[in-house]
Design a protein that fits this description.
About 10% of the residues lie in helices and about 45% in strands. With about 80 residues, the protein is mainly beta. A 5-stranded mixed barrel has the order 1-2-3-5-4. It is globular.
Length: about 80
């Protein structure tokens, strides 16, 4: 799989916040991919959104190699 197809393959995947994501913060999420679970640096897809640890998120954009933009997957 080339880098471009891996980038698009990340979009829509679910993950869980392991370090708070929010404005002015570089958070962290863990995403199940390639038969395992990997950590990515994370930013909110919506600039003012704050996403707390433990929240299930959806990947909206992937910037290789290890950065994703996420949004909460479910309304709270």
């Amino acid at each position: 799989m080339d880098d471009a197809s891996m980038d698009s393959a990340m979009v829509g995947l679910l993950g869980r916040v392991t370090g708070t994501v929010g404005p002015g913060l570089v958070g962290e999420v863990i995403v199940r991919i390639r038969g395992g679970a990997e950590h990515f640096l994370a930013h909110p897809a919506t600039p003012k959104e704050r996403i707390e640890i433990g929240t299930v998120v959806m990947v909206m954009e992937h910037l290789p190699p290890r950065t994703v933009y996420v949004t909460a997957a479910y309304d709270s």
